[in-house]
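User: I'm writing a tutorial on reading structure tokens. Could you give me a worked example: one chain, its sequence, then its tokens, then a sentence or two explaining what the tokens reveal?
Assistant: Sure. Here is the example chain.
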Amino acid sequence: MDQTRRSWFCGSPAHAVNRRGFLGSMAAGAAAVVADMTALDVLTTPVLAGEMKRQRKHVILLWLAGGASQLETWDPKPGAPTGGPFRSIPTSVPGIQISELMPKMAQRMKHTTIIRSLNTKNGDHGGGARLMMQGRRDDPSVRYPDLGAVLARELGQAHSQVPDYVTFYSATEGRNAAPGTSGFLGERYAPMGLTTSMIPENLRRLEEISELDHVQRAELRDLLSKRFARGRIASSALGSHNVAYQRVRGLMASETLFDIGREPQAVRDRYGPTQFGEQALVARRLIEAGVPFVRVARAWWDSHGQNFETHQELVPELDHVMSALLDDLEARGLLEHTLVITLAEFGRTPEINPSLGRDHFASAWSATLSGAGIRGGSVHGKTDPNGRSVVDGEIGPAELFATIYRALGIDHQKHYMVGARPVPLTEPGTEPVEDVLA
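And here are its predicted structure tokens:
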């Protein structure tokens, strides 16, 4: 199939609007529309949609489920006994090389920081996935929220009617290892998990209920709610009940965000016809509408056998989808406010086993950060010539999460209260990796 990337900036004068002038004249209107996201037709007005939604920070996590090999992606070791058959190629940033399987990302390295020095010490699918989604090890006395739930709380709007946290995981392999959890933050920040369809189920109005009936029922509920509240002391229970109904209405209206049929065919072609590409396109639509966090899982990278054939199939797809996503975000003015992460539960062993595979490896592997708050065109950390250990800049999950939080303008040292117990956002004493931050 032809997945050749073409430039798609439309050249419309509307996209060249003066941002300062726009914000000065539209601030009140923008605030009103952001507060009522049922007005989703705003997406059809590029000027309004772009300026309102790109002001807030967002995250798209490309989750490489099963454990992608750093040696076939971001930290190749050609010529080493552990290196495998693929070459490294230069990138658009002098001195940085990546796998030859990623020629498109090689030309977009200015947006991306590669972290080559993760040592996370957990090579189990379930434990490693929870660790890399939560940024800390399990605690039997506390149900920790994962990254998506934390960012939904920190970056979301209190009365937002679009989802705060959406996760796509269509494969069956590894799905239960990191399903997404809001932990002690509660169900308000639980993910909307999509496993069988790209469009959430049960959002549509029942066919036997007309649009007029639907509207009138909502109006009747509002009327009864106001009558019930009249003369009563305001309570959190009553308020949350009304917010829940408003949120449901907003979620019903947000169904169109998941429909890539509303995108021009040219845009759909650039992401490609694969499920991974289509879900990445939905992710862009969601963050453009104000969703704080979207995870798109691509499985299954667990290449204990035939590692090189597996990566020869999956890495070019990652290269194509990731480069299309970064280009699209940049063209829409969203990249400076959107952090794109590639991450897995661990990497893969430098040693090649008798099945020509690589096994689980958590001692020296890679992740990437692109976009918001990141100093692109850089590499943090270094592994030895065979990729067996970190020789410079070693970090763990806590440092990675602190870096993500700092890039998004979140205080990584803040605490949540779980009952009477203060729970820090990251482990005490953790500091972000300053040299990758803008």
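What the tokens reveal: DSSP finds eleven helices and 16 strands in the chain. The two ends are 38 Å apart (CA to CA).
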